[in-house]
């Protein structure tokens, strides 16, 4: 059984996705992979690789987040004085210390009464961050919470790793969360299993294995990919089995708690590791594929915790400003962590994509 959460009188007020202007196609990078062109194109078709968004070498997550926040301020979509907390969910921190959320708070010149919090989470980071935001809103002193999901993991993935680099993307998403007069109930479930943490990791760079000339050395693996211990290592087959085994019963549990059926959920807006994995997951859960969009990786790349809010901005767009949907969010991956939320989503103040 999952760890369960229930919330009332809370809502998502708006979603802003900030994407890098730089767009790179799969064909432009194909020569980096130790693979024949025919096999590379077959991989592209199977996994849904098309293009992805990558930041420049001097762009950090604070740049994306501050740019997005200033867009909201300048367009009167959010007031500085209404912000009580910044929650940053990232695995691309700018320093070991200080927390990057404090850096963002300082650059925005927010008040000293704004709570800043960094959460080290990846693929399930939107759901974990949303649960934290809802918990903060239980306190009367909290007005609005800005959940920031931001990663620039393209810098930590080897460009010669055909298993990971074609799917990775960079992005920052800002989700404004507030109280609501509507009494709709929100249900959430979270699971974590550190015994599987090794199947998605960056081995070097922390205190256990600091970066050295040796950790920067690129080596070829059994499948012909080149990477160093400073790069992301993903055991793809184990990740696939984990998702197909653990996520369907979690969604079944969540729907049982909420009293909803698959047919009563308008959209299953899930983390998108790749098109193949998500389509298989939809089939296993019994969700029509049109209700579980799988088009983020092929258009923008997988930006870890930012993939779900990017999903909201891209696939619901302006319709979410006037319509209301019953949705299920779910993220799964690094940790290992798998989590889901069922709630209403709609009548948003904003739901935009902008480019940095």
Can you walk me through this structure?
It is a single chain. This protein has 356 residues and is α/β, with parallel strands linked by helices. It has a single domain (1-356), classed as 3-Layer(aba) Sandwich (Peroxisomal Thiolase, Chain A, domain 1), CATH 3.40.47.10. The protein has ten helices and 17 strands. It has helices spanning 26-29, 37-47, 61-74, 100-108, 125-136, 236-258, 275-285, 296-299, 307-315, 319-322; strands spanning 3-8, 10-19, 23-25, 51-53, 83-89, 115-119, 144-151, 171-179, 185-192, 200-201, 219-220, 226-227, 233-234, 267-270, 324-333, 337-346, 350-355. The strands form five sheets. It has a six-stranded mixed sheet, sandwiched between helices. It has a five-stranded mixed sheet with strand order 1-9-16-15-14, with helices on both faces. Helix 3 runs parallel beside helix 4 and helix 6 (236-258) packs parallel to helix 7 (275-285). The radius of gyration is 19 Å and the shape is globular.
Structural class: alpha/beta
Distance between the termini: 42 Å
Number of domains: 1
Give the neighbour order of strands across the main sheet: 6-5-7-8-2-17
Rg, rounded, reads 19 Å
Give the low-pLDDT segments: none
- Quote the CATH topology: Peroxisomal Thiolase, Chain A, domain 1
Mean pLDDT: 96
Number of strands: 17
Instruction: Please identify the top-level CATH class.
Output: Alpha Beta
Give me the number of helical elements. 10
What is the CATH H-level superfamily? Thiolase/Chalcone synthase
Order of helices and strands: EEEHHEHEHEHEEEEEEEHEHHHHEEE
Major beta sheet summary: 6 strands, mixed
Q: Tell me the quaternary state.
A: single chain
- Give helix % range: 25-40%
């Amino acid at each position: 059984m999952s760890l369960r959460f229930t919330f009332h009188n809370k809502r998502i007020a708006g979603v802003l996705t900030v994407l890098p202007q730089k767009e790179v196609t799969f064909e432009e990078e194909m020569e980096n992979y130790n693979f024949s062109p025919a096999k590379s194109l077959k991989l592209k078709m199977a996994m849904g690789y098309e293009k992805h968004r990558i930041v420049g070498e001097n762009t950090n997550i604070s740049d994306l987040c501050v740019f997005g926040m200033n867009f909201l301020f300048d367009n009167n979509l959010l007031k500085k004085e209404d912000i009580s907390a910044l929650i940053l969910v990232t695995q691309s921190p700018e320093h070991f210390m200080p927390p990057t959320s404090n850096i963002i708070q300082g650059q925005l010149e927010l008040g000293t009464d704004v709570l800043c919090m960094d959460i080290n989470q990846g693929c399930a980071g939107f759901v974990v961050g949303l649960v934290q935001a809802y918990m903060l809103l239980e306190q009367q002193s909290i007005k609005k919470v800005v959940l920031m999901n931001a990663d620039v993991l393209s810098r930590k993935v080897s460009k010669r790793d055909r298993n990971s680099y074609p799917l990775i993307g960079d992005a920052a998403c800002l989700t404004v969360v507030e109280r609501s007069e509507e009494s709709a109930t929100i249900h959430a479930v979270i699971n974590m299993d550190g015994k599987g943490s090794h199947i998605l990791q960056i081995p070097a760079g922390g205190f256990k294995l600091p970066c050295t000339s040796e950790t920067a050395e690129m080596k070829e693996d059994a499948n012909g990919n080149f990477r160093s211990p400073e790069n992301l290592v993903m055991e793809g087959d184990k990740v696939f089995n984990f998702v197909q085994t653990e996520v369907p019963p979690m969604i079944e549990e969540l729907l049982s708690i909420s009293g909803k059926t698959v047919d009563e959920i308008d959209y299953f807006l899930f983390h998108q590791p790749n098109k193949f994995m998500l389509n298989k997951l939809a089939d296993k859960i019994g969700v029509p594929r049109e209700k579980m969009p799988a088009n983020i990786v092929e258009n923008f790349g997988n930006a870890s915790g930012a993939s779900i809010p990017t999903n909201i901005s891209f696939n619901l767009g302006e319709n979410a400003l006037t319509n209301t949907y019953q949705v299920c969010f779910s993220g799964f991956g690094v940790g290992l962590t798998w989590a889901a939320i069922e709630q209403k989503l709609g009548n948003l103040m904003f739901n935009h994509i902008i480019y940095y």
